[in-house]
């Protein structure tokens, strides 16, 4: 009886030792003992329960039943098929009935992508011996947050993660989702659109073409609520001007107005615009001054300075205390005998200076390379502040020439538009 094996949890075996040898009695397979009138066991009735298969053994392929019927490879003792055992209890392991034969035995075989034999459907190998994939309808622990099985869902996206603002997927309830927390790109960190909504939000957009005064300034504000600029730079602690012709596009641009914007991650800090004087006559050599290059460094020589109106206020018209824009040409340079005179270096190559109308010796905004066209800038506190002062801004105007009152670097974006 070596090699006897079967797979049924309710099976039991009785071994009877006697002079006639060893006999197996198993009511679970329809083999009941036959008793004589005196109650003694006489043998086994093969017809007692013909609905169950006959148990065969691997040690005696040509054995016989007690009734003398031969049981071999081609013979059975009843009308039921032989019971073939595999050593796997499908009731206990939970193997998917559609799985390939042998699935669940822990050995990857033909037709299986994997086989871990653990009966767990939620890991990286399913009970159908398939590798876990997003969209198979099973939430695989540690691999997915959810799995809608490829069906539409209000909670689970196609990447098998819960809908989350900022994941780059346009989910229910989101007007946009660009996958970042940038404020000035048309999509808020809360996945809502702010552009063209009739409200100008300086903490989220540079402008809004649906709002006055931007709606009245054709060519100033894009449909993405970004200033249409001829120059744009983000000022850092390093030198950020890379070439001396940085203002060429603005100096040569057609347009009656000029606007200057400053913003950082918290929002727009400065946005003012004004009408150019002498429209059509601007160029790299002559912008707000018609004087010769050697004279343009003098603020008094700027005969076309631009009064600016604050576009951040409810009233964009210039009030009694407005700012004034000075734009210095590409070839502007002081005479050598004036080079040490402050603020002569305002005019050493392209530069912008915005000063209060009431005090031209103090600056609201300064925009110029750290190095001029032929010399370093020599404004008060300019060299001491280092390269970051290429862009300086302060709510309180800064002294141009007082070394003990240094200029305030602005680390953020500056943009100039001509429209």
From TrEMBL:
InterPro entries: Myxo_disulph_rpt (IPR011936). Residues 56-74 have a biased composition (Low complexity). Residues 1-19 form the signal peptide. Keywords: Disulfide bond, Repeat, Signal. Residues 38-117 are annotated as: Disordered. NCBIfam families: myxo_disulf_rpt (TIGR02232). This is Myxococcus cysteine-rich repeat-containing protein.
């Amino acid at each position: 009886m070596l090699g006897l094996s079967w797979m049924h949890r309710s099976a039991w075996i009785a071994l009877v030792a006697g002079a006639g040898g060893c006999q197996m009695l198993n009511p679970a397979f329809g083999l009941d003992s036959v008793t004589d009138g005196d109650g003694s066991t006489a043998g086994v009735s093969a017809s007692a329960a013909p609905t169950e298969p006959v148990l065969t053994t691997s040690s005696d392929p040509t054995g016989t039943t007690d009734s003398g019927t031969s049981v071999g490879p081609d013979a059975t003792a009843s009308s039921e098929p032989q019971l073939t055992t595999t050593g796997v209890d499908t009731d206990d392991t939970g193997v998917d009935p559609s799985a390939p034969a042998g699935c669940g035995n822990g050995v990857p075989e033909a037709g299986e992508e994997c086989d871990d034999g653990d009966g767990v459907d939620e890991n990286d190998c399913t009970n159908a011996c398939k590798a876990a994939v997003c969209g198979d309808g099973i939430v695989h622990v540690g691999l997915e947050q959810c799995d809608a099985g490829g069906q539409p869902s209000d909670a689970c996206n196609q990447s098998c993660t819960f809908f989350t603002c900022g994941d780059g997927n346009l989910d229910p309830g989101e007007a946009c989702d660009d996958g970042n927390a940038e404020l000035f790109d048309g999509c808020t960190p809360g996945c809502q659109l702010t552009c063209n909504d009739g409200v100008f939000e300086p903490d989220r957009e540079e402008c809004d073409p649906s709002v006055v005064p931007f709606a009245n300034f054709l060519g100033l504000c894009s449909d993405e609520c970004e200033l249409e600029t001829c120059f744009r730079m983000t000022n850092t602690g390093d030198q950020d001007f890379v070439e001396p012709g940085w203002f060429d596009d603005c100096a040569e641009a057609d347009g009656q107005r000029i606007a200057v914007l400053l913003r950082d991650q918290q929002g727009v800090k400065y946005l003012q615009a004004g009408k150019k004087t002498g429209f059509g006559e601007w160029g790299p050599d002559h912008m707000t001054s018609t004087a010769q290059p050697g004279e343009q460094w003098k603020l008094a020589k700027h005969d076309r300075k631009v009064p600016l109106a604050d576009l951040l206020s409810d009233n964009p018209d210039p009030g009694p205390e407005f700012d004034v824009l000075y734009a210095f040409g590409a070839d502007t340079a002081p005479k050598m005998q004036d080079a040490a005179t402050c603020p002569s270096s305002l005019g050493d190559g392209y530069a912008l200076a915005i000063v209060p109308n009431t005090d031209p010796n103090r600056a609201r905004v300064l925009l110029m390379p750290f190095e001029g066209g032929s010399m370093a800038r020599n404004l008060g506190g300019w060299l001491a502040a280092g390269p970051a002062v290429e862009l300086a801004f302060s709510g309180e105007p800064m002294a141009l020439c007082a070394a003990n009152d240094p200029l305030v670097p602005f680390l953020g974006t500056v943009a100039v538009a001509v429209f």
